[in-house]
Specification:
Length: 251
């Protein structure tokens, strides 16, 4: 039993260390709040933890028989590690492709823009033009304004494409503008919690309770919905200087 526990402990330590380093780097670089929540990362992380930290070491505990030939034991451990690496690779690629790149204000809400959302052709166009807000492999999350173009025909084309399931303006980096340039439009979209259609009645009650607890007035027009893969957050701004005061979960 001592041999089994030693093998289990070493396998657990190695697996947990590698996974912690990988997830820690992704979290610090791209998935810090609110990216972790809005990208709905927990299901992917649960698979990685389940296979790499729970299943792998547990199987090692089961097969680590001191009476087994070393060649056979190495083969069994190698099979387990191969399965772990497959799960780790799947999770790592999924998280990398879905990493948050922008928090975009457009029209009447804030939206999370992930790497997988970006239109590749337009991203290449933005990089060739050397635009400051063009996405690059090392880009970390940036707050931007993504207005529809002034040209009505071009704007209608984008809206029609978005309705049909194509790229929306928030997926087209060529149209991105600095966050500060959208201040007037953002201020005009601020609403009271009760006037925001993205939340259910129960969620609005929760949001108002949490705003009051934080010393914020839910009856003032200070909020915008912040959408992503999970339930929207409520973004609360100071209407005088548009400083972000809070991001509040509705559940």
């Amino acid at each position: 039993m001592r041999f089994r526990l030693k093998a289990f402990g070493l396998h657990l330590l190695a697996s947990a260390s590698v996974l912690t380093l990988a997830l820690g780097a992704l979290h610090l670089g791209w998935y810090h709040w609110p990216g972790w929540y809005l990208a709905n990362v927990p299901p992917v992380v649960a698979v990685m933890v389940g296979v790499d930290v729970v299943l792998g070491p547990t199987l090692t505990l089961i097969i680590a028989n001191p009476g087994k030939e070393r060649r056979e034991l190495k083969r069994d451990v190698a099979i387990i590690v191969a399965v772990q690496l497959a799960a780790f690779t799947y999770g790592g690629i999924t998280l990398w492709n879905a990493r948050p790149l922008y928090y975009a204000f457009s029209e009447n809400c804030l939206s999370l823009v992930q790497a997988s959302d970006i239109d590749r052709e337009d991203a290449d166009k933005a990089r060739r033009a050397d635009l400051a807000l063009a996405p690059r492999w090392s880009s970390t999350p940036r707050w931007i304004w993504a207005p529809l173009p002034d040209n009505s025909a071009e704007a209608n084309k984008i809206v029609s494409a978005a309705i049909a399931g194509g790229a929306d303006v928030i997926d087209l980096p060529h149209y991105y503008r600095p966050w500060g340039e959208g201040a007037r439009e953002l201020k005009g979209q601020l609403k009271r919690v009760d006037d925001i259609k993205f939340f259910s009645l129960a969620e609005k009650k929760t949001l108002k309770d949490r705003m009051r607890a934080a010393g914020l007035d839910p009856d003032r027009p200070v909020g915008l919905p912040f959408t992503g893969r999970a339930r929207p957050l409520l973004a609360v701004f100071d209407p005088t200087n548009l400083k972000l005061l809070a991001l509040i979960r509705p559940t």
